[in-house]
Amino acid sequence: NPSEHEASDTAAIEVRNVRKVFDSGGKQVTALNDVNVAIRRNEFFTLLGPSGCGKTTLLRLIAGFEFPTAGSIRLNGKDIATLPPYRRPVNTVFQSYALFPHMSVAQNIGFGLKMLGKPKAEIAHRIDEVLRLVRMEDLRDRATSEISGGQQQRVALARALAPSPEVLLLDEPLSALDYKLRKQMQIELKRMQSDTGITFIFVTHDQEEALTMSDRIAVMSAGRILQVGSPHDIYERPVDRFVAGFIGESNFLQGHILTTREGLTQVSLDVGEVSAATLWASCNELPADADQADNKAVTVVVRPEHASLTDDIDRATLTGKLENIVYSGTDTHYHVSLPNRQSFIIRSQNRRGGTADHEQGQLVGISIDEAAAQLVTQ
Ligand code: ATP
User: The ABC transporter domain covers which part of the protein (predicted)?
Assistant: First the structure.
């Protein structure tokens, strides 16, 4: 089994068959349902999913603030299920920075080391190191009540990094920052991760944030992990409709399998055309038995940037009425109403000097980059 092999060689954290059931006023709430994942050493790993899917619970189990109802959590191959948080080489940065307001930046950063009984000189040295890492040398002696939100975020990070944890857990650490600062901190966090070589496990419900920062992403829904992969894998090869819909914009086309050949599946699209439109799509897992797959109902995912408008209606994959043109600076979105009234979205990059050569209400053809069309399960 290749995944087990990988787990023993390079995994920092292995989560195996983990279930977590909370008792909430006599009602059982299953927060995690048979979760399996191996997080590699030195990687920037993101847990991504909608509110309530179990991201924070998984993080709290790794930190040791909660214990699994069933299953095991291993760190460097050793079961840590019974170790209390302070005995784990794991540290957490919370969404609320939870700094001590009456202490200086340096005192906040050194607090954990002081509790561990480290010598004064060593603490002072380490404070300087992490202040450099988060680029806050100038504010060393400032009270944390007198610095900005972005700076407080950096201090919280520095404090969590100070004891040199093997694994740093980050629970939506950027959500309190405004858009510009957040973008800047995304790049900074990524840099800190690669500078320190610490394994980062980052929680977010923001798909764009996950795509730009992560080495790998686990997409979660309703207590389960649906897919683990690189940002590219997750975006270009989603395994199911939920993943495709949660990450980026998607067009979902219903259809039936006609035939399967060399990793591609020919699908007849049910879009209400008189003559059936067809396309060849790829999928992560081909139906085991091609005969059985015949005529099976499927969904094809087409990203808006993998389709374009064409005036050559006869050779287009789909046709429809151009309902809306939305200009957004770098791109233009075209909303096309298909014969079955489904709205299909096309995104095209604007070029300097390019002219809008399509008009609302016009009949248009849509050509689809079939190499990028992806078959998914429901
Ligand atoms: P968010 O993005 O909103 O923080 P999340 O993905 O982190 O959500 P969790 O906080 O892990 O989700 O919660 C998962 C589920 O478990 C939710 O249904 C939540 O209500 C429930 N839950 C979490 N902690 C407890 C608890 N201590 N007692 C009872 N139920 C809980």
Answer: 13-247
